[in-house]
């Protein structure tokens, strides 16, 4: 039995490639864009930019703290640095450097974080950061973006190049369905209502937007009409879109590849509780570390796939 | 800025020391010891060495830039910035007070002219200065980037990441200086965490090391900084080892870590000011 999906795909690709391709295109448009990477150029897909603009690219070696400081310094004189490494090393390892030299100093640095979340897979919990969105969204001045597929990541990369101010851009490693259009307009801070519904709203970010699209079709087979909203920008959060949808549906589910503590769901709960309290169920990692495994196995074991979104939606509905 | 005589510069040094002591005393908090020891450095830099414009702009294109990595020397830096025209000298009285642009540690958030990045959490400034120096190279800007670090600060690992990077990329438009006073909050550096042979360490990292043996002698500092400038542009980053005495200029403060982060009492302030001539007028 096949599902009647509202969004489909013919190709899969990693979101990090969307970043790499967007970075190259942004670099061609704007000569002030420079790149930095801490010994993960291949993994971050920054090699094409490095090859085309060797003078504007800086291999920093395995020294992320220095990389963040360098990026902050390069903005003085008008450069727009894109500093790339794994999400774990781009946040937790260098939190104070980001806090003081980038966020507090309000520098135009783009922190580009790959291999975020459980879907990093076999490398295990040391590398599977699930706390990065929380850490980054707590920083004043910081914009936090977590796109859902190759096309959206590419569009987001181009958009942050034109945005003035510090940005955290989070993407990942696994090959993932490309289900959003190549020519999409990416508006920072503007949620995208992908599927109209009336019974429950699913707010999803990153890879889990695809799981939400699948969950919507599964719910529809049971006569439940879910609204799916793609929250690519965690901060600033599109509170208006959230309130408008929940006003209609009366309950919601948040879905993210991140700890429940401090994640997107927390931000949505804050919005709801301030303006119009409504039942909210969380799909996310429940206060635990990850482990080695394939992305699919991990999303299943930690309760982050479409089946879990369906369960959460029904739970939210029952609480209305 | 018109060059001033040694006598004039000396007068600015005593005024800077007075400013620092009065600022820290007024709010009964802050760090007097290290800025007293760096008065000659600050004054040499801002009144002679730097090619800079007190009409501040963040990008600082075609200007020499200065970064303060050991941000707790803020009182000294604010004094020299005010005295060289970045903002009104009067504003020094707001130091560390609510609604001030003169934060406890330097910050950009309130828009204080002269500050290009926040500092205070140690170990980060050298990386930022290197980035700014590389941006200058990318922009075809031949001016220099200066930075001051504390010696205790060298215990932070990030400094050595930056040290390695600077030599690897031959960032030779950067002139760093270590305030080598041998003191930190908990005591002498050799007791807290011995730095051992700093000259050998920086040379081993691929830097050109320039020792300024008497960092509280104005002429020696000026000469040392001019030499450092002559060493720039030759493929290596330049490091000045500036031997200073913490608390210099006040007999009961000199040479001890005890005044790292303690303000003087009313009596101690009077005693200290009695040793430092008011030359440019107190704020």
TrEMBL record, chain A:
It comes from the Bacteria. Residues 13-178 form the Transketolase-like pyrimidine-binding domain. Its cofactor is thiamine diphosphate. The keyword Cytoplasm does not apply. InterPro entries: PDH/Transketolase, THDP-binding, Transketo_C/PFOR_II, Transketolase-like_Pyr-bd, Transketolase_C. CDD domains: TPP_PYR_DXS_TK_like. Keywords: Thiamine pyrophosphate. Belongs to the transketolase family. This is Transketolase subunit TktAc. It comes from Algoriphagus marincola HL-49. The lineage of its organism: Bacteria, Pseudomonadati, Bacteroidota, Cytophagia, Cytophagales.
Automatic annotation (TrEMBL), chain B:
Transmembrane segments: none annotated. InterPro entries: THDP-binding (IPR029061), Transketolase_N (IPR005474). Keywords: Thiamine pyrophosphate. Pfam families: Transketolase_N. The keyword NAD does not apply. The keyword Iron-sulfur does not apply. Its cofactor is thiamine diphosphate. Residues 12-271 form the Transketolase N-terminal domain. Belongs to the transketolase family. PANTHER family: TRANSKETOLASE N-TERMINAL SECTION-RELATED. This is Transketolase. It comes from Algoriphagus formosus.
